[in-house]
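[INFO] parsing input record for SH3b domain-containing protein
[DEBUG] input buffer:
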Amino acid sequence: MALAVSAGLMLAQADAAPQSADAQILRVQDSGGAARGAVTNLPVPRYVSLKGSEGNARRGPSLSHRIDWVFRHAGMPLRVVAEFGHWRRVEDKDGAGGWIHYALLSGVRTALVTQDMVELRSRPNPDADIVARAETGAIVRLGECNIDWCRISGGGQRGWVPKTAIWGVDPDEVRD
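[DEBUG] output buffer:
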């Protein structure tokens, strides 16, 4: 449903949480169709991480809404799917989440290892030397990514892994 069209930008109403019908969640779409948050003008969806060791995910974008979920791992990668004022609707790898105050989130990019004992390689090549291995569920720092590989670090180790072995980066995303 288009709300307004001005200077090549279109405001479109996103899916509002059914529990907060009075809240209007807006996304801005540029002429290329890329969605941007109406509050931050950053891409939506996008990845962020949990700043502290605990973050309450609420049913709606205010402190008066019930807590549905508690994230308990510092650095946990989360996907921002909507914005409203100081609140961000986030999801984890499994789609669980809710509304979190922006002060609990960080722009530092992390990833979650999804493949058990994934091999970290010295170069983004399946024939490169193995420098370490990471377990499923490990939270790692996300570095540069090309079309198929990402450089990650954690636990004093760093190396390249296939994108398919981690969650926290889009399949077509390239990072320098």
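[INFO] The longest strand covers residues 77-84.
[INFO] shutting down worker
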